[in-house]
Amino acid sequence: MSAIRLLLVFFAGASLGAILISAAPGLRPASQNAAPPAGPAPADSRIPVELSAAGRQHIRQQMIRYLEGMSVLSDAIRYSDFETIKAVSEDLGTPDPTSSGIVKDAPEGFRQISKAMRSDFASLGLAAEPDKAAELEDTFGAILLKCSSCHGSYRADSPSP
Ligand code: HEC
Are the C-beta atoms of 122 and 83 separated by less than 8 Å? Predict the structure, then answer.
């Protein structure tokens, strides 16, 4: 797979977003058409993970890569495009030293989920072989579960002054 295909997916996504936003007022970002909140927002009970502004920015960029990668992977699994599955899994499964530095003081559970997710990406790459369709789908599901368990348990927070 090629960088071209990744780029195509990216641009297709970006243009679809633009079309949806201009065509459907109901789909505008909440900040543009939301009514003012009715009362205090409900408390967020997730565990805060303190990140500097620059650290958060880096993590967000990584997250967008994950999201895009999952979209490419879901297609590649559907069409048995093993080359793409291997390439994207290797990319997303490789530890990023900058991120590791940013989250080195994060709670143990946070870092464990992140490690488990990388190991799932490695398994996904290994399962990119003919006749392993069920394993591919199961592993893809296991990765999604890591996304949602981290997001469900932790939230980013600014360091306390
Ligand atoms: C170990 C924890 C963890 C895992 C696993 C994780 N995320 Fe995140 N994710 C975060 C944190 C923390 C933020 C919030 C960053 C912030 O708001 O500063 C975030 C934010 C995001 C965002 C919002 C980015 C933005 O622009 O604000 C997306 C999209 C996202 N994650 C997608 C994913 C996907 C897809 C996966 C799985 C493939 C995933 N995440 C796995 C911790 C995680």
Answer: no
| pLDDT score at 48 | 96
| Cα separation values, 124 from 5, 61, 71, 120, Å | 20, 22, 14, 6
Q: Mind listing the pLDDT tens digit for each residue in 77-98?
A: 999 999 999 999 999 999 999 9
Q: Are 50 and 158 in contact (CB under 8 A)?
A: yes
Cβ of residue 115 lying under 6 Å from some atom of ligand 1: no
The CA distance from 80 to 132, in Å, is 10
What is the CA(110)–ligand 1 centre distance, in A? 11
Domains of the chain are: 50-156 (1.20.120.10)
Question: How many other C-beta atoms can be found within 10 angstroms of the C-beta atom of residue 105?
Answer: 11
Least confident of 29-33, 78-82, 108-112: 29-33
